[in-house]
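Session log. Operator J.P. requested a structure for one protein chain; no other inputs attached. Running the standard single-chain path with token output.
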Amino acid sequence: MQHTIQSVLTRGVSEILPSKDGLADLMSKKKIRLYLGIDPTGNQLHLGHSVVLRKLQQFAELGCEVILLIGNGTVKIGDPTGKDKTRPMLTEEAIEENFKTWKDQASKILDFSKITVKRNGDWLDKLTYVDLVKLLSTTTVQQLLERDMFQERMKNNLPIFAHEMMYPLLQGYDSVVMDVDLEIGGNDQIFNMMVGRQLQKLMNNREKYVLGTPLLVGSDGRKMGKSLNNFIPLTDTAENMYGKLMSVIDEVVFEYFTLLTDVPTIEIEEMKKAVQSQEIHPMEVKKKLAHTISAMYHGEKAADDAEKHFQKIVQNKELPEDIQSVKIGSTPITIMDLVLQTGVCTTKGEARRLIEQGGVQMNGEKVLDPSAPFVAQDGATVKIGKRQYFQVQRG
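Structure written below.
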């Protein structure tokens, strides 16, 4: 898809401050400098992250000066956005460990030959006591307390620590140091980005625009989160990605098309009208979504194979030809032990939730008690989740 200034500033954008027209006019006159800041608090990227990463890449394709900022300085505080309690402070070792696989995953979306990577620890770690006092003097406590999550904590008599209130100022200072024209981020970052706009005006006497992208909802329509298991990792296999996209609720399919693909808007609208008029079944649209996104990350052949696999295993309820085996000894084990042994779940808590939610079947029958003894015979079939099958081998 050939991106234009108007398309980049419209599709997949929730708001532009102070105005879309002003930013469009600036972009028509020069190659702007912009950035996206990422705090490496985790090491797994998912389709939700791809919304803002795709937007960053679109600016790069327009020839803008694009910076991906790794918040190895700000992450030591931890962004309180959306949190009802204080984030734990991360060590340098934890930050580096989290970032280790981040670039490989982001490379599925970002062309790093067109993007400069910087780290804000390079300047934030060098701030002196005097520098911090000057920075703090630019904003009032009342302004910082306007943040929604702080208001919510005060309402619930939950603590707000002083270092958390500094976070927006430190993030805002990044805009000053890099002297940017624009900052982009999820729309939950608008407050932080607007602080940067204020600092850029005060300290560099120039305009900074703010662009917010929508937050992708989970496959079940709820807020996306690991505990709800409603996200799709970028590292998923084509089969898993396709299968998970087929489980997306109908209400979010067209939102996924808009935010996660380059399918033309006019085509998306035509599909929406066709579904509403019952000319096509929603399942066919969902298949197109699953194939389109799987092909984006794994190629057309892998997407074709994933579609065939889904039809055979899920729709026709056949067992896969390459069914995996799980070996167990003579020592008695529980259902939870078995699930952990397959490697599908890595923690007891994750395995327990999966079992209790009906995600484990033994020879076609659901098992709901994680502590139940595993008594199946050699050759028994275990289904974990919606698409993973194992055959038990005793020995």
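Operator note: The mean pLDDT is 87.
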